[in-house]
């Protein structure tokens, strides 16, 4: 069975099992049948079971079960079992899957304001990003997701994305003509063009084989993804330019959310917020481990010493996107101080 078939089956099961029984007062007999009152909600995750975002999802699930005394169960499906990121977002929007932990990169196709995070070099470091995310604008962005039929619950740490390739890359010049896989959104296409490379959008799950067969020369991601998706085995040159910090978000389907009681909404939101600490701690640890592991495996990791030429190269594109994101870019810049 392929992933798409599994995703459809899951969607059908979701409807058939009537997971809302007993939730929001829909079932009059529910009080007589406590055993049937459990609400089972699925969460789709791209990464493997022991990856920090998956462990963040699991912490969230654990808190929900604990605080609802078993009445609400969140089932975490790692390793893209429910489908590739974009397909899962669509299912969440429709209400066929309750939650997903996703990158705000693909979310930008569903909710434009999140596109700002795909703009390069806008955060100086992780602290800068978290200061922005934890401030009023970060919250506003999560709240704004409701207009696109999602409920933004919290952000998880995404680390920083850098380039890697099957061919040696050490400088901006080396980017010329490289075919680089990107997360599908318009900003990423423009970014590759600005750096002299050509963008090939494709789902995450296809990157490894595309690197192997030479369909693409490289991709870009943080150390944990580079390691766990095995990209490091084929693309052995990693160039640390930290061009993007694209926050991970835990989102819920608004269709499902709207059927919850006010009390359950609060419980779910709080559990998500409380899971962030765990995810961030595990992320910080694993990011270092992943870097050490790829180095030990023989990958060439080069730090970009001077980011100025890179920042210069993307200036015109940032200028172009100021039309959409000028105000929020100013707020991001202010958060650095
Ligand atoms: C990872 C991110 C995933 C996915 C992936 C990709 O860093 O956690 O959600 O977006 O990148 O590049 O497709």
From TrEMBL:
Gene3D superfamilies: Bacterial extracellular solute-binding protein, family 7. The keyword Chaperone does not apply. Keywords: Signal. It comes from the Bacteria. Pfam families: DctP. InterPro entries: DctP_fam, TRAP_DctP, TRAP_DctP_sf. This is TRAP transporter substrate-binding protein. It comes from Anaeroselena agilis.
